[in-house]
Design a protein that fits this description.
Blueprint lengths: L3 H18 L21 H12 L1 E8 L15 H11 L1 E8 L4
Antiparallel strand pairs: 1-2
Helix pairs in contact: 1-2
Length: 102
């Protein structure tokens, strides 16, 4: 499950990626992708993702065992509460909420 700690690590990795790879040719990052991208990742795309993730927060919900439907419509900020409910009825769904600028 994705946690706020994981999100912080992703943000730090993107900052490193931006600072270390962006000043160079776009193809320098190619070996770090499990599957090749159809076009090289641009420095602007990395910056946009960093900015978007800074405006994100996590929420959790209980979904069915196939991960296709929410069993509860209420999103929870607490992973612990959802984990307990999911242990009896399904799986935990991690929802990444983006607080888009107005």
């Amino acid at each position: 499950m994705l946690t706020t700690r994981h999100l912080a690590v992703i943000q730090a990795a993107l900052q490193f990626f931006d600072e270390e790879f962006s000043p160079h040719e776009p193809d320098i990052s190619a070996p770090y992708f499990d599957k090749p991208l159809s076009t090289p990742l641009t420095a602007e795309e990395v910056r946009q993702l960093r900015t978007a993730l800074q405006s994100c927060r996590l929420a959790y919900a209980v979904c069915d065992l196939q991960g296709e439907e929410f069993l509860e419509l209420q999103l929870e900020p607490s992973l612990e509460r959802v984990t307990t409910a999911a242990a009896q009825a399904g799986r935990v769904a991690t929802v990444l909420l983006w607080d888009a600028p107005a």
